[in-house]
């Protein structure tokens, strides 16, 4: 039986500290928003939830640290899903408390909540990817291509968080109830699924990772983030006169749509023009990592049909 890989303790400590610190700050928001006898009940509920979360985190974080030097990111996807699932539930209750108490316009606390999410969530994704620990990606150019693709994932996470932050930051006129709920849970689903798709692309390719073959996430982000969020911001700007709409991120969505369309066209041309080269490259990568490469069938047939030495009549006598 093959022993499990050693755990990367610095990676486990760093990810655990980031998760616990962000959860503790969200708990502080929840407790601070409630006063009187209700505050004690909120403290008890938060503590019980944190204990259950810590029990699960104790095992998942160790498993993530054990796979950080491998080509797998399965446990990293589990940890990301668990973290965002619990964090967004707490964000939802904080947002509802701000919505119920519109007279309290503490702009600093609301902006601090946005800053907290915009730092902790993308940083945890970068830690889970652990691009610097990918020892199997030895080519500097290939590693930089993967880093550039992960940079777009981080920008997309910030894009989603910006739309979600418009719900609790100070506003003169609120959106309709159905629009607010739809926006929150749409962003919730995107934060849960899309980073996991990026991690799964790295995990599925394994050791022979090819950056230009990672096309699932760009296609999904083009539709779900760049196009739909552009429509959401445009609708808020035109119909609801929402002055908090970020014009910079709208420009980012337009540029991302143009760049991704051109990259899709280039990928299609490359796929149709040089398919044999990819097969040769795959064979070289396989041979480089110690796996036996089978010879072509024609070569095997030639080896089997090698003529035997002729036996003359003198040798029988």
Automatic annotation (TrEMBL):
The chain crosses the membrane at residues 12-30, 42-62, 74-93, 113-131, 183-202, 214-233, 245-265. Pfam families: CECR6_TMEM121. Keywords: Membrane, Transmembrane, Transmembrane helix. InterPro entries: CECR6/TMEM121, TMEM121. It comes from the Eukaryota. Belongs to the TMEM121 family. This is Transmembrane protein 121.
């Amino acid at each position: 039986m093959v022993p499990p890989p050693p755990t990367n303790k610095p990676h486990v400590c760093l990810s655990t500290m980031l998760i616990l610190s962000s959860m503790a700050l969200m708990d502080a928001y929840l407790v601070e928003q409630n006063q009187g006898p209700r505050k004690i009940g909120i403290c008890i509920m938060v503590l019980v939830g944190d204990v259950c979360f810590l029990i699960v985190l104790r095992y998942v974080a160790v498993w993530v640290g054990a796979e950080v030097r491998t080509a797998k990111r399965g446990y990293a996807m589990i940890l990301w899903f668990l973290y965002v699932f619990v964090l967004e539930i707490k964000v939802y209750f904080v947002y509802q408390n701000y919505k119920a108490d519109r007279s309290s316009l503490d702009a600093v606390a609301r902006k601090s909540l946005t800053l907290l999410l915009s730092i902790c969530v993308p940083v945890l994704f970068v830690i889970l990817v652990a691009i610097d620990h990918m020892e199997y990606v030895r080519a500097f150019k290939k590693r930089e291509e993967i880093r550039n693709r992960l940079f777009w994932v981080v920008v997309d996470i910030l894009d989603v968080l910006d739309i979600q932050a418009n719900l609790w930051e100070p506003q003169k006129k609120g959106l309709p109830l159905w629009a607010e709920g739809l926006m929150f849970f749409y962003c919730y689903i995107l934060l849960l699924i899309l980073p996991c798709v990026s991690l799964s692309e790295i995990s599925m390719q394994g050791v022979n990772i090819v950056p230009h073959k990672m096309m699932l996430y760009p296609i999904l982000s083009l539709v779900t983030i760049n196009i739909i969020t552009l429509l959401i911001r445009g609708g808020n700007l035109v119909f609801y006169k929402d002055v908090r709409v970020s014009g910079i991120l709208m420009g980012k969505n337009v540029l991302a749509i143009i760049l991704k369309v051109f990259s899709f066209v280039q990928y299609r041309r490359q796929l149709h023009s040089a398919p044999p080269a990819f097969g040769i490259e795959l064979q070289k990568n396989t041979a480089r990592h110690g796996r036996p490469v089978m010879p072509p069938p024609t070569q095997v047939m030639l080896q089997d049909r090698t003529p035997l030495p002729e036996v003359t009549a003198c040798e029988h006598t």
